[in-house]
Amino acid sequence: MDYPAPAYGIVAPPVEFSKTKFIIIIVFIVVIFGLLILGAIAIALGVGLGVGLSRRHDDSSSSSSSNSNTDSYSILSPPTVTCTYGGSTTCGCAATKPSFLTPRIIQGYTATAYSWPWIVALYIDNDKAFCGGFLISYQHVMTAAHCVEDIIPSTITVYAGIQTLSSRSSGQSRVVSSLTTHPSYSTSDYTNDIAILTLQSAFNQTTIVGKCCLTFDTSLPSIDEHAVIAGWGATSSTSQTISDKLLQGVIQIQSSSSSSSPCSLMSSSIQICAGYAGTDSCYGDSGSPLMTSVNNSWTCTGIVSSGRGCGTNGLYTRVSAYQSFIQSIIGS
To answer: Where is the Peptidase S1 domain (predicted)?
Structure first.
């Protein structure tokens, strides 16, 4: 997620088929087949000569804490949330519990379907741009200000209760009637990067459409706390396509003293810096939530805002700092 924003989700057009391309494909297949045969011979010779062929990053039979392979990657343990789903009065608790992979994957991975029922997809400016967001009531969406600045509200469609973007028509959709960006939002340093969208009509609460909890404790999230990010953004800084499936990852809250950019640039009272070992938000994730455990519920304590490329630490808007702004729109 670079500073220029919003992050456009551009899907590459399908490749046209031609006779020339067919010949190229055939040649490519023949070359690959030949390399596979040579590889098999090389492996056989390697084993015969007693050469050690190590497996990297894929030995799931051993514990990450006792694994002696220094090349192995690990992910952070997720925040602990054991809440009980209670219907429309519930915030931050899903009927379908999220699940997390064992500590062997470094990047994000597909989220359990409908385990984050407050996350929504925003198709902006008649589908010219894409961002994420999350429900804070059934008629209000929180997102990043840079996603919707100078956008006509009626050109934004919000989709809820979806897992894949390709099947978004099967979920609920609402058009935005009005939007409010923070009056002090800065396009130069992305401070106060927060906006609230009011929908023309409320979403229907279901087991797959819910709302996220909020906290106004400005000390949260705390340094070194583990957090979850989720969104449909790109999976690498060189990709021009957003993900069809909802992805998630576990990251860690960093201090402003971190040597890794952009932590040293943040205003800690209103921003959060977070990331972990390459797990990061990216293009198309703007506006999506950073979630932590507060009072045994998933709480949206951050908003994906800005960063320097993908795969390092990123900056998130600290939601708890905006109590008066939020309540002026949605009430107490």
So the answer is: 105-331
Q: Which of 115, 137, 281, 286 is catalytic?
A: 286
Do the beta carbons of residue 277 and residue 312 sit within 8 Å?
no
Percent over 90 (pLDDT), the chain: 64
Tell me 322's DSSP state.
G
At residue 102, the pLDDT reads: 57
Marked catalytic residue, from 146, 182, 285, 305: 146
- pTM of the predicted structure, to 2 decimals: 0.79
What domains lie within the chain, and their CATH numbers? Answer: 87-330 (2.40.10.10)
* Mean pLDDT value across the chain: 81
Q: CB-based contacts of 272: which residues, under 8 Å, 6+ apart? A: 221, 253, 266, 290, 301, 302, 315, 316, 317, 318
> Residue 275 and residue 314: Cα distance in Å, rounded?
6
Residue with tokens 């990047």: 107
Active site residue 146: yes
State mean pLDDT over 108-126: 95
